[in-house]
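The material for today's practical consists of a large collection of protein records. Backbone structure tokens are a discrete shorthand for how the chain folds in space. An example says more than a description, so a record of this kind follows:
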Amino acid sequence: MHSTILGDGHLGWAVAAAAGTRGERTPILGRPTFARHDPVAFGGTDVVIDCSRGEAVLANLGAAIDAGVRRFVIASTGWADARDEVATTLQDAGAIAVVSANFSLGVAIFGRLVDTAAALFGAVEGFDPYLVEWHRRGKVDRPSGTALDLARRLTGPAADPSELEVVSIRAGSSPGMHLVGFDAVGETVELRITARDRSAYASGILAATDWLRRAPRAPGIHTFEAVVDELLASPAGIAA
């Protein structure tokens, strides 16, 4: 059995390269000729890693489920409108998916630091939070899924996102930078995470495939946080 990667872009190839260092076979399927992939293409696959496009996620899921695949890692973004349908499709098939807008282990821990910072600065007066994110020129979603997650951590899930100042930069070839700041009259505090390349995302995606294979999981959608929780609780900890 092996993983199959959907999407032959930068992220798909980064995952394949990372898997190759572990001696794993990971075929890559590019965009299908017709509406969706031929289920025959998933022969021998036990985990599908979707690194394609948001609008393709639901069709990719259906094709792989028809082929008998029941484990998925969805690293594509821009499919929030289809989330309920994806969840229903997984539940009906008894299938499991780990989903995240960003599979970087560093970003996952960064988010927890932002939770703590938001609580601390929210307890005192005079500090205004803000968020800046920078991605390559060709990235379509704005703000990015990671930026939206960080914004929710800063404001709380019930707050109006427009209350937070978020700046999205799309220029050059940056794989991703996110900066969270708290500004007051006399001082500014900033937390920043910068991706140097997509290997950081690939490591997290492979950690998610390991998590899916390690034990039975409940059908439906699981967040990357569950994977990180288990890694942090492990005696071996997180290996970046």
